[in-house]
Amino acid sequence: MGKLRMLALDLDGTLLREDKTISQPTRDLLTALYQAGVEIAFVTGRMYHYTAPIQELLGFPVHYICTDGAFFQPRGWEAPHLKTV
User: Fold this and answer.
1) Average of pLDDT values for 18-46?
2) What is the mean pLDDT of residues 53-82?
3) pLDDT given at position 82
4) Is residue 30 domain-resident?
5) Which domain holds residue 53?
6) I need a surface site. Which of 3, 28, 62, 70 has the fewest CB within 10 A?
7) Does residue 85 form part of some domain?
8) 66 in a structural domain
9) Buried/exposed code over 41-76 (b: 16+ C-beta within 10 A; e: otherwise)
10) How far is the CA of 60 from the CAs of 1, 28, 30, 83, 85, in angstroms?
11) With 70 as the cut, is the pLDDT of residue 1 above it?
C-alpha cells in the first residue's frame, strides 16, 4: 500500500463531539498527519461559514468541500467572497 496522501473527514457525528469540539487526542493525531505531509479535508453538508471556524480548532489550513459538495476551497486559499443572490 502507498503512502497516505489525504484524509477526508465528515464533521458532525464523526470528527466533532456532541459539544462541537475536537478531542485533544484527535487534534494531536491530525496535527501529526499534517506535519507528515498528509492533506486534511473537511467534507460536510454544512455551509462554508459554519465550517471555517472548525479549522481554527486545529491551527492549520485544511481543504473544504461544503454545502453537500456544491462548494470547494483548496487549502491555503483566501476566504471566498460570498454573496447571497
Assistant:
1) 94
2) 79
3) 60
4) yes
5) 23-73
6) 3
7) no
8) yes
9) bbbbebebeebbebbeebeeebbbbbeeeebebeee
10) 27, 12, 10, 26, 31
11) no
CA pair distance 11, 45, nearest whole angstrom: 9
Q: Is residue 52 part of a domain?
A: yes
| Cβ pair 51, 64 in contact under 8 A | yes
The mean predicted confidence, pLDDT, of the chain is: 86
Which residue from 37, 42, 1, 48 is spatially nearest to 22, judged by alpha carbons?
42
Domains: count for the chain: 1
Residue 48 has pLDDT above 90, yes or no: no
Please tell me the predicted confidence (pLDDT) of residue 71: 80
Rounded to whole angstroms, the Cα distance separating 56 from 82 reads 20
